[in-house]
Amino acid sequence: MSVWVKMQADLAMLERRGLRRHGFIVESPIEPRVTVAGVRMVCLCSNNYLNLANHPEVRSAAAKAIAQWGVGVGASRLISGTTSLHIQLQDALAALRGTEAALVTSTGYAANACAMSTLAAAGDLIMADKLSHASVIDAARGTGAVLRTYHHNDMDRLRALLTRLRPNHKRCVLVTDGLFSMDGDVAPLIELVEIRKQFDAVLVVDDSHAFGVLGEGGRGSAEAAGVADEVDVTIGTLSKALGAMGGFIAGRRVLIDMIWNTARPFIYTTALPPVMCAAALAAMEIVRREPQRRQNCLRNADRLRQALIQAGAHIGGSTTQIIPIILGTAQRALEMSQRCFKAGFLAPAIRPPTVAPNTARLRVSVMAEHEWNDLKRFVDLVAAAKA
Ligand SMILES: Cc1ncc(COP(=O)(O)O)c(C=O)c1O
Questions:
Q1: Residue pLDDT, tens place only, 36-75
Q2: Is 109 a pocket residue for ligand 1 (Cβ < 6 Å)?
Q3: pTM for this structure?
Q4: How far apart, in whole angstroms, are the C-alpha atoms of residue 79 and residue 88?
Q5: What are the strands, taking DSSP E only, across 230-288?
Q6: CATH code of the domain occupying 56-289
Q7: CA 16 to CA 221: how far, in whole Å?
Q8: Which CATH superfamily includes the segment(s) 26-54+291-386?
Q9: What are the pLDDT digits (tens) for 287-332?
Q10: CA of residue 48 to ligand 1 center, whole Å
Q11: More exposed terminus of the chain, fewer Cβ within 10 Å: N or C?
Q12: Cα of 9 from ligand 1 centre, angstroms
């Protein structure tokens, strides 16, 4: 069988199992309502939690940056791709996160690759929560270190594994998402900080979904847990609450300098365009100035969570703006997603391998400006589907 015939057969098999991915084509800016196939729909699947991706101030900052800098930088960060906007953004991120330094990368995916490849190598041990984002796991796999995953948020299991494995390795890195992207629950950071000390490990938190949303100042899950100064490395993205594009690593100056000098995913790629730095900076200013955005987002989510529970939905351990509706088989999740689509809600099915088998789901992400009437209609739909 030729490579292409085999590929066709593999795709057909994914289709038969309800696992083939198609995606929607969106025809408008990402806001609480979007246009798909000419129809206005309620968007329940965007990470633009604070509705900043199309905010007038963010747009205007981006337009000004394009007028001044053009679109691309045409070089990697180490050659001539570092502009004064990159430095300004890095300083602002480090100040907000309270770290010595920060480094901006092209994506959050790359930020994980840069950090992990600098922190661990052959002979080291990486312990990752089983539900860590794919970019965390891929980054860890690429290091040559031993990678072990522990059951989701199970600190007893983590301690037991570390007691057995830690003595055989040089360095140890503990890595977890701060806010889990498919489940909407948070990591037990207070315990992780203790474990990090007990086992002489480095604690890395991927806070992509919490940055801008959780914590009094929107600084993320460590701020919310009261351990902001005890997380060694924070990974973040500019593409979710900040509504822009790009990633960052915040931590000690020595780590940032080492990434700058040695991390292949940092060195051998073109720098993030300055327009994205300008957009992220403008968005950060709004996050600082308007705490009500994150408060509204979390309030909307609380209300939706309670209503979904009352409607009999299985929402797992969600405590944040990400709310899964766990349905089981991929087919059930697809059917529910299609039902939502027909009723005017964009809520794609999340299926294996993104989530574990038999936990296929709709993943609802709540935005600050979702209207309760829309969310209520969605709850009614979920309730009707259960009946
Ligand atoms: C937890 C987590 N980490 C990292 C990423 C990657 O971020 P980016 O989309 O900026 O590459 C994502 C999102 O896709 C994510 O959910």
A1: 999 999 999 999 999 999 999 999 999 999 999 999 999 9
A2: yes
A3: 0.96
A4: 18
A5: 233-237, 247-251
A6: 3.40.640.10
A7: 40
A8: Aspartate Aminotransferase, domain 1 (3.90.1150.10)
A9: 999 999 999 999 999 999 999 999 999 999 999 999 999 999 999 9
A10: 13
A11: C
A12: 30
